[in-house]
Amino acid sequence: VYEHGHHGNAVLSRFPIVSVENEDVSSHRYERRGLLHCVVAVPGWTRQLHCMCVHLSLQERGRRRQLDAIAARIEALAAQELPLVVAGDFNDWRHRATRVLESRLGLTEVSVARYGRAARTFPSALPVLRLDRIYVRGFRVVASQVHHGAPWALLSDHLALSAELQRS
């Protein structure tokens, strides 16, 4: 929380979170942004699950720097072929994040995998922009959904996304 508003990231898990790191990827002092990276111990898995939650800048120049920080972190994980979920508010109406995360880093956007295009999530009352996304590596997308109507449209100015994944 800061004097011009607040932006938060959270990862919720039914399985133990074994480590957490929050990297400040703010592009300027008036728009605080973070990259939350946690490692989850999923019972029965030999490799731990890496989850990243992001909230990127409204300004494109800031988003480019933030995507570079995300890409650097993911490249280290990609070399080890670890399962990965990256989700959040990308504020990316031009889909440049998708080009970086899919072509450069081999991730799949769940709505694109399921329906051929990213989901409309903003504004929640009448969604027209595709700003929020879930990217995965090491999973098959079983289902993907945007949560419309009450109470979802009242909780935020963005609609919530969810995905059902199967380890590949």
SSE layout and pairing:
Layout: E1 17-24, E2 34-40, E3 49-55, H1 60-78, E4 84-89, H2 96-104, E5 108-109, H3 110-115, E6 132-137, E7 139-147, H4 152-155, E8 160-167
Parallel strand pairs: 3-4
Antiparallel strand pairs: 1-2, 2-3, 4-6, 5-6, 7-8
Shape: globular
Return the string of H and E elements. Answer: EEEHEHEHEEHE
Strand order of the largest sheet: 1-2-3-4-6-5
Main beta sheet: 6 strands, mixed
Given the helix and strand composition, which structural class is it?
A: alpha+beta
Strand content: 25-35%
Unreliable spans are: none
Distance between termini?
A: 39 Å
Question: Could you walk me through the main structural features you see in this protein, from its secondary elements to its overall organization?
Answer:
The protein has 168 residues and is of the alpha+beta class. Helix content is 23%, strand content 32%. The chain is built from 4 helices and 8 strands. The strands form 2 sheets. The protein has a 6-stranded mixed β-sheet. Strands 7-8 form a two-stranded antiparallel sheet. Strand 2 (34-40) and strand 3 (49-55) form a beta hairpin. The radius of gyration is 15 Å and the shape is globular.
Outline of the structure:
The protein is of the alpha+beta class. It has helices spanning 60-78, 96-104, 110-115, 152-155, and strands at residues 17-24, 34-40, 49-55, 84-89, 108-109, 132-137, 139-147, 160-167. The chain has a 6-stranded mixed beta sheet with strand order 1-2-3-4-6-5.
